[in-house]
Amino acid sequence: MTPSRIPLFLLCAMAALAPAVGVPYEELLQDTLKSIVVAAGTLAACGGFLWAYRNGPQDAWLPHALPHDALPPLALPPLAVLPFGLMAYALGSMAWSHTYLAGVEAVRWFLFGSIVLLGTQLFSVRHVTLLAWGVHLGAVVASLWASWQFWFGWSFFPQGPNPASTFINRNFLAEYLVCALPYSVLLLARVRDKSTVFVLSASLAWVVVALLMTGTRSALTALAGLAVVLPTALWMLRREVVSQGWSRGHVVALVATLGLVIAGLGSIPTNNTTLIQEYGRIDALHRSTQRVASLTQPQEYTEGSISIRSRMWMATLRMIADHPLAGVGAGAWEVHVPRYQDDDLSTELDYYAHHEPLQLVAEYGLVGWGFLVLLLAYLARTAFQIWRERNAGVAIPADTPAEMHATMHDATQAELPTTMQADALIRTCALASVAALLWVSQGGFPWRMAATGALFALGLAVLSAADRASNAVIPPWFRPRPWTIQRHHAVAMLCAMAVCIGMAIAISTQAVRCEWWLVRAGKTALGIAATRTAQDPRWDAEKQAVVGWLREGIAIHPHYRKLSVIAADAMARWGDWAHATWVWESVLASRPYVVSLRVNAARGHLAAGDIPGAYRHYALALHVNPHSPALQALHVTLLHREGQIGPAMRRARALLVSGVIDQNLVQEAYVLGRSHDLDLAILAMHAGIRAWPQRAMDGWLRLGHLYLAKHDPDRARKAFATALALSPPMTRWLLQEHIPKAYRPVE
């Protein structure tokens, strides 16, 4: 491989590997591996690119090299200003917002901007085709894993909602696949060999089937849009399709191949146990149609996932209204969102707003608005330019020899403008990919996922490279600016890149170690808590190991709320409140507004007999969301522990009557009522049965004993009979042991 191809190959390999590779165990998160792949590929490609300039402008080996062995000047595209501007803001917000999260955002935008900047230098017509091969290959391999998961329940890669391939979540997979599809369509138009075209069409259909398997509605609606836009673009720009001489029969066969593969593979029902329990034994076609049809159901907007997302969006809008200029700081949405959530939410919102533009504006303020406005203006200008030039393309005859074809596409910088300007199809497919990503960004967070974010940057890089080749026809403010790199420039940038690579290695190593400790601690803790013998001394060694793993992981990353609290919640269940409280408070140091963590920490202090410490957390949470059900239940517990029995019972009764439901509230009211007011205990049990019908058997059993204590045998008999009716037949005899003999059914 010649040096000129090394950075290009690294970018294309990164595009193929990021979606295709995964981790076969849970101790490393899937997106962490993908982030390592993207960072390594990007930084290595940048280093390889700069290496050519180490002796100044003499070593001509770049794809766009000029005659006379002179390296071309570096093109500084205005499009790269957008991500680097966000990076600068993120670095600045480290001084006044959440330092760690802002630093993560700065790194993310640095890699994004580096891909745009490097791709602008490297991509020509033929090289965009090579990139399309990389994207298509990655999508096909990811679709293969997803198909096995859907059809056979293959569980090699740990995952949440199935089928997720190597993406841990099927929504993440679907968002990537729909953004990769335009590059697969580009290959259909660029490949000359018709046999290869038919193989490509079959693999493209496979990717579509995998997308249908996910049932992700945002991606499916984006797919419907691409199904209209891309064929229309192929027809309008048909003079640029390389495989000239196609007969009508060829086109019919190509469309038939796509349709038959989609229909055939899409009709194979799932054998995935998880999916069967969730949706029944359904195939990909029916699953996708059912999911899209669910958008017409009113309950989806009141009880379904859209209603949950809409509450996130409304909280984000309130955050924007409160911080319209500077935002809350890069990456700090999850820190501040508890302050803006609805009062009746019992738990905090997710870690992301599930709406990338809204979250960007909430975090970056006017800088975020500037990014969105300029990006949309640029994309609209590109679409208008493609439309205006759709009939001005320079077609390459089908009988052009391969050598001459390559030369026409990639000979010299002087010839490049005509070639790239003619190929509006490349810009159309890149634009379609970015547009699909912007669409799915309205209901998810694909910019923050490594593979999809890299695909976003690559799409902008392709468009920027086209601008570089079209300087004569675009407005001056969109033209990339040339910069001749001298030796001292190259040496300085190589040194900086070496530092970046070293930091990337160190950060990746620490991330792997941290996630290994925290995930292992969480898995072990959950396993112990799930047993009925968690208090048995035989678990002591494992419990000590959990604490040690947590200390190792938290020492590396004290802000990992997603993982560390899993182990803390499990430890609280087996009674280790001291270590659980330590973990919760370590997270609260950087997430001070999370009411659920405040409540947990307060209960941990109560378990240790530290009532003032519990009140301290209660007071801090009261300023965030005084109407939180968990916080109101904590107030009842605090009153009870202080010996204020009357106020505690009155408060518990008022909350239950008003419809406030919380497990701790129900339990506290039951304990209070059983000792002081049986009517309160009965009220608590009825509220618990309505809220958690899966636990109704235990509730009716307790109600039976409460009615006996009230000397109401008729209601007691009915309660015991209801409990027996809800019990499984195989274990009904165990339940009867807890019922007085006089109230057992006559055998």
Strand content bin: under 5%
Please state the structural category.
mainly alpha
Number of helices: 32
Q: Taking all residues together, what is the mean pLDDT?
A: 86
Order the strands across the largest sheet as they lie in space: 1-2
> Helix fraction?
55-70%
Biggest sheet layout? 2 strands, antiparallel
Distance between the termini: 85 Å
Task: Point out poorly predicted stretches.
Answer: 58-70, 393-422
CA gyration radius, whole angstroms = 30 Å
Q: Give the beta-strand count.
A: 2
Global shape: globular
Would you mind describing this structure in some detail?
The protein is 67% helix and 1% strand. It has helices at 6-20, 30-51, 81-93, 99-122, 125-152, 170-190, 194-214, 217-236, 248-266, 273-279, 284-293, 305-322, 333-336, 356-364, 366-388, 402-410, 416-422, 424-440, 450-468, 487-530, 540-556, 561-573, 577-588, 595-607, 611-622, 629-641, 645-657, 663-676, 678-691, 696-709, 713-726, 732-736, and strands spanning 74-76, 481-483. It has a two-stranded antiparallel sheet. The longest helix is centred in the last third of the chain and has 44 residues, at 487-530.
What does the secondary structure layout of this molecule look like, with pairings?
Layout (H helix, E strand, L loop, with lengths): L5 H15 L9 H22 L22 E3 L4 H13 L5 H24 L2 H28 L17 H21 L3 H21 L2 H20 L11 H19 L6 H7 L4 H10 L11 H18 L10 H4 L19 H9 L1 H23 L13 H9 L5 H7 L1 H17 L9 H19 L12 E3 L3 H44 L9 H17 L4 H13 L3 H12 L6 H13 L3 H12 L6 H13 L3 H13 L5 H14 L1 H14 L4 H14 L3 H14 L5 H5 L11
Antiparallel strand pairs: 1-2
Helix pairs in contact: 1-2, 1-5, 2-4, 2-20, 3-4, 3-15, 4-19, 5-6, 5-7, 6-7, 6-8, 6-18, 6-19, 7-9, 7-11, 8-18, 12-14, 14-15, 15-18, 18-19, 20-21, 20-22, 22-23, 23-24, 24-25, 24-26, 25-26, 26-27, 26-28, 27-28, 27-29, 28-29, 29-30, 30-31
